[in-house]
Amino acid sequence: MSEEERLVSGEQYIDDQAIDAALRPKKLDDFIGQERVREQLSLVLHSALRRGRTPDHVLLSGGPGLGKTTLAMIIAAELGRPLRITSGPAIERAGDLAAVLSTLSEGEVLFLDEIHRMARPAEEMLYLAMEDFRVDVVVGKGPGATAIPLDIAPFTLVGATTRAGMLPGPLRDRFGFVAHMDFYDPAELEIIVRRSAGLLGVRIDDRAAAEVAFRSRGTPRIANRLLRRVRDFAEVRADGYVTLDLARSALDLYEVDESGLDRLDLAVLRALLTKFGGGPVGLSTLAVSVGEEPETVEVVAEPFLVRQGLLARTPRGRIATPAAWTHLGLAPPQVPGPAGGTLFDVTPDTD
Ligand SMILES: Nc1ncnc2c1ncn2[C@@H]1O[C@H](COP(=O)(O)OP(=O)(O)OP(=O)(O)O)[C@@H](O)[C@H]1O
Ligand SMILES: [Mg+2]
C-alpha cells in the first residue's frame, strides 16, 4: 500500500486483489447483509430459472468495496452460467463491445464493471443488444455506410457503477432490476469480519471483531483490510490471538479512530473547528489549511464526514455540526444569531 493509499478507503488496492477474491462469498445465501437486494435478486434469478428464460438485466449501484463484483459473480453462479467480465474503460469503441457481444454464448452473464465509463457510441449499441439481442454492424463509411443487423445470443447484462448519477437515463431504464447497495451496519460487518477471520485462519475475539467492524466505515473491503492489519499486529506483538485490547492498539497505531476516521478526516475536522470556529468556510480555504488539494478533501474526506453527520456542505461553505465538536472533545461556541438562531442554522444566501 503506497503512502497515498489510505487504510480506510473503499477503493481496491493491488494487495487487496488476491484477498478480495479469496474472501468473496460464492452463493447468495453466504452473502451477508443487503437484505432487500438479496431477496429481490433471489426472486429475479429464481423466477427466470423456473421459466427457463434469461433473467432481466441487473444494475448494481453503490460505493467502492460494497460487494458489486461479488454479487455479479454470485449471479452467474446461481444461474449456473459462465461469466464474462469486462469494464467501461476497456470499451473505447463500439467495435470493442461488438466483439464481446457477438461471442457470448446463450444465457451467458456479461459483467460490465464501471459501466458509466463506457464510450458513448458503444452505449447506443448496448441499448439495442439489451433490448433485442441484436447489434448493428456498420459497414463502410459516409453516405454509403450500411448497418447489417446481427443476432446475438440472449444474455444477462450485469452492470456495476459507483456513480449511478452519471448513467444516461435510457441506459438505466433498460435494466429490469436496479440494486442499490448501501453501507453495511456494524452487526453485519461483524459477521463478515468473523467469516473472513475463519477463512484466513485468524483467531479473533468476538469483541475484537466488533471493534474492527465498527471502524470499517460500513464497507466490507475496509473491514477485511483492517482485519489483516490487526492480525499483523497481533502476530508481531503477541501470540497472534486478536483480543479487544490488541485490536484497539493496532487500530490506534494505524490512526483509524473509534468511528473509522483517519488522520486526514481528523485534520479537516480539527481545522474546521479550531481555525474557522466551525465554519462556514470555503472548500479551498479549508483544504489549504490542512495542506491538501481541494479535490482530495472533497472526494476523499468529506463524504464520510458528511455521512457521519460531522460536517455539512452548505451554499455558504463547509460547517461543522454539533456532533463534530463532541467528537473532538471540544465545546461548541455559543453564538446566537440576531433572530436567536445558532451557528448551525443552514440558511442559503439570498443575495
Ligand atoms: N456481503 C458481503 N459479505 C461478505 N463479504 C463481502 C460482502 N460484500 C463484499 N464483501 C467482501 O468485500 C470485498 C470487496 O467486495 P467487491 O470487490 O465485490 O466490491 P465492489 O463493490 O465490486 O468494489 P469496487 O467498486 O471497488 O469494484 C470482497 O472481497 C468480499 O470479500
Ligand atoms: Mg468491483
UniProtKB/TrEMBL annotation:
Its EC number is 3.6.4.-. Keywords: ATP-binding, Cytoplasm, DNA damage, DNA recombination, DNA repair, DNA-binding, Helicase, Hydrolase, Nucleotide-binding. DNA binds at residues 313, 318. Residues 185-255 are annotated as: Small ATPAse domain (RuvB-S). Belongs to the RuvB family. InterPro entries: AAA+_ATPase (IPR003593), AAA_lid_4 (IPR041445), DNA_helicase_Holl-junc_RuvB (IPR004605), P-loop_NTPase (IPR027417), RuvB-like_N (IPR008824), RuvB_wg_C (IPR008823), WH-like_DNA-bd_sf (IPR036388), WH_DNA-bd_sf (IPR036390). Its main location: cytoplasm. The keyword Amino-acid biosynthesis does not apply. The RuvA-RuvB-RuvC complex processes Holliday junction (HJ) DNA during genetic recombination and DNA repair, while the RuvA-RuvB complex plays an important role in the rescue of blocked DNA replication forks via replication fork reversal (RFR). RuvA specifically binds to HJ cruciform DNA, conferring on it an open structure. The RuvB hexamer acts as an ATP-dependent pump, pulling dsDNA into and through the RuvAB complex. RuvB forms 2 homohexamers on either side of HJ DNA bound by 1 or 2 RuvA tetramers; 4 subunits per hexamer contact DNA at a time. Has 3 domains, the large (RuvB-L) and small ATPase (RuvB-S) domains and the C-terminal head (RuvB-H) domain. The head domain binds DNA, while the ATPase domains jointly bind ATP, ADP or are empty depending on the state of the subunit in the translocation cycle. During a single DNA translocation step the structure of each domain remains the same, but their relative positions change. ATP binds at residues 23-24, 65, 68-70, 131-133, 174, 184, 221. It comes from Actinocorallia longicatena. It catalyses: ATP + H2O = ADP + phosphate + H(+). Gene3D superfamilies: 1.10.8.60, P-loop containing nucleotide triphosphate hydrolases (3.40.50.300), Winged helix-like DNA-binding domain superfamily/Winged helix DNA-binding domain (1.10.10.10). Residues 54-203 form the AAA+ ATPase domain. Residues 258-351 are annotated as: Head domain (RuvB-H). GO terms for molecular function: helicase activity. The keyword Cytoplasm applies. It is found in: Cytoplasm. This is Holliday junction branch migration complex subunit RuvB. SMART domains: AAA.
